[in-house]
Design brief:
Layout: H1 3-32, H2 38-45, E1 49-53, H3 58-69, E2 73-78, H4 81-94, E3 102-105, H5 111-125, E4 130-133, H6 154-179, H7 197-200, E5 206-210, H8 223-243, E6 249-254, H9 261-266, H10 272-278, H11 286-298, E7 303-305, H12 308-317, H13 326-364
Parallel strand pairs: 1-2, 1-4, 2-3, 4-5, 5-6, 6-7
Helix pairs in contact: 1-13, 3-4, 3-11, 5-6, 6-8, 12-13
Length: 365
C-alpha cells in the first residue's frame, strides 16, 4: 500500500471513527450522571430550604421525598389541596429529625397569588436556597382541534400551566428579594444583573427548571405543549446568563415520559398518530427521574436528562447553554444531525401515510 492509499484509508477511518467515538463518550458521560452519592447530596442540601412547585404528585413529590431524606427543609407548593395534604404527610415522614417540612397551596398560574404566597413563606421560613419549578401538564391534540378561545383555550391554558407557573415563581422570588432590602442609600448602590449585593443575598443559590424532551424537538399532537417547553427553555437559557455574575446556578432538566398520574391524563387526548410516532417505550418511574436530575445537578450540568434520546437531542440542538462535553459533542454533531434528519423523514412519511389511510377509510364508509 502506497502512502497515498494509506492516508486515504486513515482519513476514511477517522471520518467515521472519530464521530462514533465522540458519540460513545457523550453517551458514557450521560450514564455516569444518572445517579448520585447520597452522602454528597446530604452534605450539599443539609439544612437548606428547598421549594418544589408541583410537589404534590409524581416527579415533584419524588424529588421532595429524596431531598427531605437528605436533610433539607422542603416546602412543596401545589394548587390542589387534597393532593397537597397527602403529599405533605409523606414529606414530613421522610424528613430527618430537626428538618422542617412545609406546604403552600397556591395557583402558580396567577402571578399576584404566587408572589403573595411566597412572600408569606419567606416571612416564616426565611430565604429559599433552592427552587425547583416542576409544575406543569401536557394536553396533546391536533392544533386544528384546539382552536377554541375563552375558557376552553387549550393553547393558552398550556402556556399558563407549563410556562407561567415557572416564570411566576422565579419573578416572585426576585421581587421578594428586592423588597427585603430597605432603600436607605442617598446614592443608589451599584447593581449586578439588576440586583444590589444586599438584594442578591436574598436570592436562591440554585434554580432548577423542569422542561421536557419536547423543549428540543416536536411532532404532530404536541403543538400546544411543545410551544410552552420551547419558551421555557429560552427563558431558562437567558436566566442562566443573567444570574451567572451572581454565582447563582441554573439547571434545565428534560425528563422522558414518566409513569405519573399526569401521563395517564395526557393519554386521554393523545392522537393515534402521536402514539404511533412515540412508539412503545417503557415509562420511567418518577423516583428514578428525580435521581437522574439530582445526579446531573451535583455533577454541575446545566442541561440534564434521564433519557438518552433527549440527551442526544440536546447535543444536536447546540443551543446557548453550556456543554457538558464540548469537544465530544462538537465532534459528534455531524453524525447526530444525520441520524435525526433520517428520523424526521420517517415521521413525515408516517404522518402522510396515516392520514391517507384515514381518508380512504372515511370515503369507503
Amino acid at each position: 500500500m502506497d502512502i497515498g492509499s494509506a492516508l486515504g484509508t486513515f482519513a476514511a477511518v477517522a471520518f467515521i471513527g472519530v464521530p462514533v467515538a465522540a458519540l460513545l463518550k457523550v453517551i458514557g458521560s450521560f450514564y455516569l450522571t444518572q445517579s448520585y452519592n447520597p452522602k454528597t447530596l446530604s452534605k450539599t442540601v443539609q439544612g437548606c430550604h428547598i421549594l418544589i412547585t408541583g410537589g404534590s404528585k409524581g416527579f415533584g413529590l419524588e424529588t421532595a421525598l429524596k431531598l427531605a431524606a437528605a436533610g433539607a427543609n422542603v416546602t412543596i407548593a401545589a394548587r390542589q389541596s387534597q393532593f397537597l395534604d397527602e403529599a405533605f404527610v409523606r414529606v414530613q415522614n421522610a424528613s430527618q429529625v430537626g428538618a422542617v417540612a412545609r406546604k403552600v397551596a397556591v395557583d402558580l398560574r396567577n402571578g399576584d397569588n404566587t408572589k403573595e404566597a411566597l412572600r408569606g413563606l419567606v416571612a416564616v421560613a426565611g430565604r429559599i436556597d433552592w427552587v425547583i419549578c416542576a409544575a406543569g401538564a401536557a394536553t396533546p391534540g391536533l392544533i386544528s382541534d384546539q382552536i377554541q378561545f375563552g375558557d376552553d383555550d387549550t393553547l393558552r391554558s398550556q402556556m399558563d400551566s407549563n410556562y407561567f407557573t415557572a416564570v411566576n415563581t422565579v419573578r416572585s422570588i426576585f421581587a421578594i428579594a428586592k423588597e427585603s432590602v430597605k432603600k436607605v442609600h442617598a446614592i443608589p448602590p451599584a447593581e449586578v444583573s439588576g440586583f444590589t449585593l444586599e438584594e442578591a443575598a436574598h436570592l436562591p443559590t440554585k434554580i432548577v427548571i423542569i422542561g421536557s424532551a419536547l423543549s428540543f424537538m416536536t411532532f404532530i399532537g404536541y403543538g400546544a405543549y411543545s410551544a410552552t417547553r420551547f419558551a421555557l427553555r429560552g427563558f431558562s437559557d437567558a436566566l442562566r446568563h443573567e444570574l451567572k455574575p451572581l454565582n447563582i446556578q441554573v439547571h434545565y432538566f428534560s425528563p422522558g415520559n414518566m409513569d405519573t398520574p399526569g401521563y395517564a391524563v395526557e393519554n386521554l387526548t393523545k392522537p393515534e398518530i402521536t402514539r404511533k410516532i412515540e412508539g412503545v417505550s417503557a415509562l420511567v418511574l418518577p423516583a428514578k427521574a428525580a435521581s437522574a436530575m439530582l445526579g446531573g445537578i451535583l455533577a454541575g450540568r446545566y442541561y440534564c436528562s434521564n433519557d438518552i434520546v433527549t440527551e442526544l437531542l440536546t447535543v444536536a440542538n447546540m443551543s446557548s447553554g453550556p456543554r457538558s462535553n464540548p469537544i465530544s459533542e462538537t465532534l459528534s454533531i455531524g453524525l447526530l444531525t444525520f441520524i435525526f434528519v433520517l428520523w424526521q423523514v420517517v415521521i413525515d412519511v408516517d404522518v402522510v401515510s396515516y392520514f391517507k389511510k384515514q381518508s380512504k377509510f372515511a370515503t369507503s364508509q
